[in-house]
Amino acid sequence: MSESTTDAATTASDDDAVAAASSSPGLSRRGLLGLALGGGVAGLAVGVGAGVAGGVALGRARAAEEAQTAYDFFGAHQAGITTPVQEHLHFASFDMMPRTDRDDLISLLQDWSYAASRITQGLEVSATGAVGGDAEEPPDDTGEAQGLPAAGLTITIGFGPSLFENEDGDRYGIADRRPQALERLPPFVGDDLDPAHSQGDLCIQACADDPQVAVHAIRNLSRIAFGRARLRWSQLGFGKTSRTTSAQATPRNLFGFKDGTANILADDAKALEQNVWVAVSDEPGWMAGGSYLVARKIAMLIETWDRVRLSEQDAIIGREKGSGAPLSGGDEFTEPKFSGTAIDANSHVRLAHPDQNDGIRILRRGFNYVDGNNELGRLAAGLFFLSYQRDPQQFIALQKRLSTDLMSEYIRHVGSGIWAVPPGAASGSYVGAGLFA
Amino acid sequence: MSESTTDAATTASDDDAVAAASSSPGLSRRGLLGLALGGGVAGLAVGVGAGVAGGVALGRARAAEEAQTAYDFFGAHQAGITTPVQEHLHFASFDMMPRTDRDDLISLLQDWSYAASRITQGLEVSATGAVGGDAEEPPDDTGEAQGLPAAGLTITIGFGPSLFENEDGDRYGIADRRPQALERLPPFVGDDLDPAHSQGDLCIQACADDPQVAVHAIRNLSRIAFGRARLRWSQLGFGKTSRTTSAQATPRNLFGFKDGTANILADDAKALEQNVWVAVSDEPGWMAGGSYLVARKIAMLIETWDRVRLSEQDAIIGREKGSGAPLSGGDEFTEPKFSGTAIDANSHVRLAHPDQNDGIRILRRGFNYVDGNNELGRLAAGLFFLSYQRDPQQFIALQKRLSTDLMSEYIRHVGSGIWAVPPGAASGSYVGAGLFA
User: Fold this and answer.
1) Which of A263, A390, B288, B345 lies in disulfide reach of B280, CB 3.0 to 4.6 Å?
2) Is the complex ipTM more than 0.90?
């Protein structure tokens, strides 16, 4: 929040960025010109490489000064999957606007990638940003993140089944490139889905250690989408309910239990290869290095759960509430034993365990949410479940297995979506470039 | 999040707490016995002094270890007013349940005070907490904050006008003790209030640097209220939009502008005395050392604002978006000059300035909020305005003055409430004790 330091750094960095940009053209400025941005356009359109060159330098300077974290937007995989789970989430689902064409979609992905490459480095969405442009035009950047560091922001972009083909047909000439695996999820026991909080042509997962940085990201990416895509639904989350590195302590969900003890960790290359990343040998080729994202908004019947006796809570989960140890003994990280009677056959830990599911594992990345309360005075709260897997069938198999989960009595799945998450963009390119190649 | 360290500390502290409690009885356990808490009751009812003795020791130990902050719940003033503004808010408004009596209200305030005295020190709501009680009973504490530090949590409790008298009359025998100043706010230009998001017999402002800690507080205090009061509405907020110490950088609201530059600061004893704290000479006597809280949920028309050119945004606010300096010159902390033409007569900074309002000042403590988006794809976002003042007339005068505010075009007041915030409780007592003396 050191205003003067940051402003100085941004200026220096933006100069670097503009210099770097001259040798790395990349992005269409078509969509941006559709916005009444005037003086800001030059900044927004300097090319996708710009944010990187300037951003990394800035990231390093700040890391030394403020111990802040900045993750590269470009790379083999998109950031925000194996990245150490941040503290805050703003997730957004978008639908493409009527009468948009293939070029609109490509330019949107290019513009999103360019802006994401900047804001993940703590920069504004363009070189002119919130206050550096023509004062007689609306600023490029909405400005509420001025002075804030990158805060570990990651932007992860996904493509829903409806993007490839919907009731309007093959709008973008990509129907034949749809991954066979990318289909709307089947109905599950316990589904009580709100269509207004499900699905979407596109999604953006913004995670950061500062909620204002995550909100700034979704707000500005929504704004950049103006005329091409619009927000369908969105969700804020906090207090990550999983971990992706062994250095992270296991957090607790709103049932008060540790969550994510047995999650796939970022340093487990073999598990990631087997369970998370789409392989080169998988179809389609443009998804290699990508993953499939499932989002489920899971409402928890908080007040009902809170009236359940401790021994029953433990039995439902199959773990001790305090330590997280399986009821078969040991500590949090002891493998549960299912042969005895200590762990109920329909406990959550047993039904979700790889041993009971042909070895299937998924990488979970959920967050707690509270959307105020309902008219009965009950908290509208729960778990915004996010998981990444190499094939959606992994999630489907696990979720079917959970149909007899003792926990089902205390939860309702109220939102759902699935998206193909392409591999990371190469520097100077954009997320999804392979789809249009 | 260091599980083992925290558990050890909690255990030690709880022992201290129980020891201390034997010499400081205080709280009714009536309401608690109404809950099916069984084994937890002993813990919940050990007395109000308990949390303090144990809590402060624990707070100190953790401060050294984790650089975490714990604020005393007890004191001359309630915490959460001049306390350095934390990063997160969970605000809750409650209505008393039908057929509750004076003893119910007193026991509720006692139980809230006891629990608050513990959780503000990073403890669970009772000595047995989430997992230390009888396993055949529901736990006292819902458990999601196990392992988390106090995170600067403050709990601030207020009494609405309807608590003193409503359509059911003088339910609690306190109508004649209602502060004359405590009346529902008059209608203002720009009001578009949702009754379901306004008013309330009681309110609790929970602020913390970790949203999970603030949410845990409201959830557990709501639970403790079971059968006596129920949640009427609640609001999460983030990214404080004011500051209360000169060490805090001025944060930005969702219009992208610095907010709170000229706020009353915690070290300005004279300004606090004149503008924030109810004086001993003010009526009624039981409010001396207290304050009046006004909450306004102010929706921002984000997408409309984002299309306004920078020069006009600056003119509307009367300050430069980047630096926060008044348009009459200088830097952020230069006093604005209204004699020239640089600052519009209807700019926000001018209309809200003490010079234009007979010297009136208020202590602001608002937060940004995002409640997802509406069906048009627009962010449901804005400012959850909270202000503390010695007399509600201060807010009323300022808000009337803002009727011609240029900013009005871009905001809607959608929620409103006012509460008398009693002085802090003495150690071993409870918030509001003076009202019933």
Assistant:
1) B288
2) no
